[in-house]
Amino acid sequence: MSLSLPVSWSRAEVSETNSLVSPEKLSNYDLIVLCQEDTQPDKAAFAELLRRYQSHLNRLFYHLAPDWQERADLAQEVWIRVYRNINRLQDPTKFRGWLSRIATNLFYDELRKRKRVSQPLSLDAPLYVEDGEMSWELPDNAPSPSDDLATREFYEHLQTAIAKLPETFRTTIVLREIEGLAYEEIAEITGVSLGTVKSRIARARLKLQSVLQNYLDEE
Predict the structure, then answer these.
(1) Per residue in 138-156, pLDDT tens?
(2) In this structure, which topology does domain 149-218 adopt according to CATH?
(3) Which residues, 6+ apart, have CB-to-CB distance to 139 below 8 Å?
């Protein structure tokens, strides 16, 4: 049975109703509200939130850092930060952008760390929170290859071309073309002006078009 709630209901009424419904049947918005109603997120609701958004996070890291072996570790660290800070999210409808911002910030933190020292990130230890240990079962972060060989080869060339873009260009083009975020959201996530975002995306597109056109001409 699907859950249908009147818009006029209060947050408290929504939370009370949600407590009687399994997390799988709740909307994304209601899951986030349920995770925010106490000092620690509801574990069942948070696990369902992780399940729904893990592919988004995997895809984002796959495009930002295709040659990194620690992408699953980075994704785990993102969810640790979400678990600890979800109460700070003022608008549950902006969860996806907020999640992308945390992931992008973590990516740049790790990038700066790699430039200073050549030590890989290690996050193998389980997460311990105030109410006990939380295990993380993250799915494989590599996208399934297409059955069509030509499409798969083109996709691989596209991935290679994206990976070779300068870091700032790669981030903006991934957030725009892969994640489908609005220019305003990208500006907020990356901390630059709207004009800078548009300029980076335009230049990244031109570069990708040039590289891929060379590949198509060879074919």
Answers:
(1) 445 455 444 444 556 656 6
(2) Arc Repressor Mutant, subunit A (1.10.10)
(3) 54, 55, 58
